[in-house]
Design a protein that fits this description.
302 residues; alpha/beta; 7-stranded mixed beta sheet; 14 strands; 20% helix; binds zinc ion
Amino acid sequence: MLSIVVLGTAAGGGVPQWNCGCANCRAARNGRPELQSTQASIAVSADREHWFLVNASPDLRQQITETPALHPRTGHLRQSPIAGVILTNGEVDAVAGLLSLRESTAFGLYAHQRVLDILRDNSIFNVLRGDLVPRRALPLNAPFALPLIDGTPSGLTLEAFPVPGKIALFLEDETDNGEGDTVGLEIRDDTDGQRLVFLAACAEVTSPIADRLRGADLVFFDGTLWRDDEMIAAGLGSKTGKRMGHMAMSDTIPALAGLDIGKRVFLHINNSNPALREDSPERRAAREAGWIVPADGMEIDL
Ligand SMILES: [Zn+2]
């Protein structure tokens, strides 16, 4: 059985973002605390004893504190149920939380070689001792059995795959197609075959991506923006969603209809997104199309 805890739901900056005065951030500070959310991360387990984090957000310390499943087990002075951390990219909102896991407890660290290179080149990440926190490069399109730190099977199989996300980078630098900068993940329960697909950044549903998503029991999908020009329309930025590697919810909903997906959950939701508000027409449209806009701490058992 796959068990998932949504540790955080927000895009980089969280809600409210420290320097943001948009309507959602203002409401989150003033009278609408339910809008507050931490930066995107999930925890996944096959046995509810050992957990793998997908991304280590800057809010990880707070997320662990608020998630009993991730607390040290009774009777141990130093212990953690966190068996590993899987990184889907090397951005601050995916890796900064590693610095909060520095107190000499072993776990496995998995990322594409390009992301491991970023960690290697930033010496601050040496707080994760190499003898305790082995770093393993994730190949693309090659499933492997995810081990616990003692080498025994976790009951999960992990596969990373490339996602369309860096179109703009590709256009700006033709020598580098950005492959590996952002990956999607497929995580499968070895016992019952249930399968989740994690795509917290995705610029386009290409046919290989549709094939990945088809028939999945659970999908976490890029929920950064409701509409492609949202940041521009709100006066918060000059880039479209596509330009930032994010497909808008309003385009995702029809694109994923008909792919026979069990549960569909938006993740990495930017504070500009009107679907954050339970009472908004955008939220209603997402809900009526079968999509979940989660709150921090939401648990899903498949
Ligand atoms: Zn804001």
